Each structure stands twice: as C-alpha cells, then as structure tokens.
Amino acid sequence: MKTLITIALGAATVAVLLAQSSDTPQFTGKDELVVPNDYREWIYLSSGLGMTYGPIADASADRSPMFDNVFVAPTAYRAFLSTGKWPEKTMFVLEARSSNSKGSINNAGHYQTDRMGFEIEVKDTARFPGNGWAFFAPQGKTAKMIPRTASCYTCHPANGAVDNTFVQFYPTLLPIAKEKGTLKAQP
Amino acid sequence: MKTLITIALGAATVAVLLAQSSDTPQFTGKDELVVPNDYREWIYLSSGLGMTYGPIADASADRSPMFDNVFVAPTAYRAFLSTGKWPEKTMFVLEARSSNSKGSINNAGHYQTDRMGFEIEVKDTARFPGNGWAFFAPQGKTAKMIPRTASCYTCHPANGAVDNTFVQFYPTLLPIAKEKGTLKAQP
Most CB atoms closer than 10 Å: which of A124, B121, B148, B180? Predict the structure, then answer.
C-alpha cells in the first residue's frame, strides 16, 4: 500500500510538472525570459499565409509568402475558454515558416517548410507598464524584450479584438469572445 | 495524511483521464467511432493553403483556396518523437477551413475562417485489413468509415513518407523520421 501511495504521489507530481513546464513565463532578468522551446506542444490557434497589414503593394509580388502559426500556453487557453479573457502570465508564440509549392506529390498551393523565426508575447501587468503585455525575441536559450519603440506595441492594443491579441484571426476563440462579451468594438 | 493521500490519488487519476480523453479511438461499431471533438487540443503538425495533388489547372483559378490543418493525438505524437513510427491506435485529424484576405487590418495574403469539414485517420492493424489504417468522416457525434474505394486508401500508402502519413509535409517531424531511419524511399 505504501508503495502504491508513493507511486500515486509521484504520478501526481509528474503530471503537475508536465502540465506547467514552460506554460507560464520564467523570467531570468528584468527584460529577459527562458525561451519556451516546447511551444509546439501548446494549443494551436491559427495560421496565415502572407498576411499583410501594410499597403497591398508590399505583398503582391511575393511568390514565396511566409506562413505564420500562433500557439498559446494551455493554462491561458483554458482560462480563455471559461472567461473570454487572457489571465496574468499568458504566453503566446508567433512562428514564421517558409512556404513551398512544389514538392513530393504537391504541385500547387503552399505547404510549410523551415522555421524562419519566432516571437513570444507575455502578459504580466505587475511587470510591464502600459497594458501589461510585452514582446520578446529569442536569442539562444533566453529571449530579450523587444524595445517599446517597435510597432507591435502600438498595433496590438489598437487593433487586437480581445485585449492585446488578434482574436479576430483565431476562428475557434472568436465565438467564445463574442459569447462572453469580451470583444472590443472594432474600428 | 489520509486526506492528503486521497487528494494525491485523485489528482493522479484526473491527470491520467485528462491526458487520455479521446486520445485513442473509441469504436462504437465495426466501422464507426466517436468523433474526437477536442482534437484542437491535440498536437498541431502543419497547415497548407490550396495544396493540390492533381493537375495544376485544378488550382490555378482558385481565388479562395482552403487551408488544411493537421493534428495528431498526444500519445501517438510522443511515441513518434521516440521512435519515428506511429503506434497502434494513432489518430490524426485533417481539418479544412475557408480563407479570407480582407478583414480587420489584413488586406493581402490569407487567414483562416470557418471550418468546412474534417476527417479522421486511425491506425489499428487488428481491426483494419491492408496496412492497418482507415479513414472516417464525421456524421454528428460518430464518424463512419470512408469506403475503401476512396482515393485516400491508395494515395496515402503510395506517397506518405512514413507509414500511411505525409510526414514530408510536417516540418517538425521530418527531421525525427530522418534521424530514426523511418522514412520510406520517395518516388
């Protein structure tokens, strides 16, 4: 019986550790955090191909557009399902990948290939001024905060449908935000 | 102490149940299974836009191409990371979504909108003849096996890079299959 209890306690601990690994930001300095390298095991929100916020001319000549994939940490995702809001310590990852058209049996359209980069977005209102969100660029095992002069700090709060995030582009979350009444009025 | 042990046992049980919900096929009949409605919480593998296996002419005039998203059950994913092979009871979901170009602040490229359909792929060599894989189409809460005359039953084994699956289009799994030596020779 004692062995069984030990196994059960061990299993519970392992389960909790697995669930929380990298699920919330681990800061290594004022403006630095550990890169959550397992973000591909987080919850997938959506992808775009060649999404363009600026003038159309920027994209029209692009024959090799990039895919972007968005992932959110599981704990934050579950909170959003319940409330339509992002809790403290929410983490997003935006990943960019090259596209290819011809390969194997595919001969038109686009599929994803190599990762070209990724960025991390974190909500921590006690740590970050303004609306409490900050963006980070990976540099090896840690990620440095992107300077506040970057356009993401003005575009996200101005245009994100929920808080600092583009829920209008996440088709499984948009109905939840509508139901919970957490959508901002859109411009 | 007894209370603590009970809580620990409870937590372990809950964790195991959460991890396994819908993670393996639950058959309701010879050729029917329960639709795994939480597949969006599985592991994301990749997306394509307007991927076309047939003549290019089929796709060239398509101004509203569809996205496809591929998800695999977490237990099968973890086995693949270790072995480069898909274990018995592996489940995949292929989801098709409409695309949109103009919406919110986006004015070029494509982002995902409504789900247009999805299919389930299952490996169970004791149940399915041939190479042990079968495809299912949802009809409400259950999914019916797609007839063996469908093209998926010939195309997947002929062209899938690993077993019955298109690992050549899953950029995080392809290096694992190469490392483990489980890639088929490509035509």
Answer: B121
Determine phi and psi for A12, rounding to 5 degrees: -65, -45
pLDDT, averaged per 10 consecutive residues of chain B (187 residues), comes to 48 46 88 96 97 67 85 98 98 97 91 97 96 97 96 95 97 98 82
CA distances from A155 to A47, A87, A132, A147, A152 (A): 19, 21, 15, 14, 5
For B73, the closest chain A residue by CA position comes to: A41
Of the residues A106, A116, A170, the best mutation for testing chain B's interface (the one with the most B CB atoms within 10 Å of its CB) is: A106
- Predicted confidence (pLDDT) per residue in A7-33, tens digit: 454 444 444 444 445 799 999 998 999
* A17 interfacial to chain B (CB closer than 8 Å): no
Between CA B177 and CA A174 the distance in angstroms is 36
Which H or E element spans position B67?
Answer: strand B67-72
Across the interface, whether the CB atoms of A109 and B48 are under 8 A apart is answered: yes
Tell me the whole-structure pTM to 2 decimals: 0.88
Task: Please state the ipTM of this predicted complex.
Answer: 0.87
Nearest to B8 among A12, A46, A67 (CB): A12
Nearest residue in B to A98, CA atom: B171
Question: What is the structure's pLDDT at A18?
Answer: 45
B138-to-A171, A173, B143 alpha-carbon distances in Å? 20, 22, 4
Our CA-based measurement puts residue B37 at a distance from the nearest CA of chain A, in whole angstroms, of: 12
Residue A122's nearest CA partner among A25, A31, A46 is: A25
Place of tokens 């592991």: B43
Quick one: closest CA in B to A60, which residue? B108
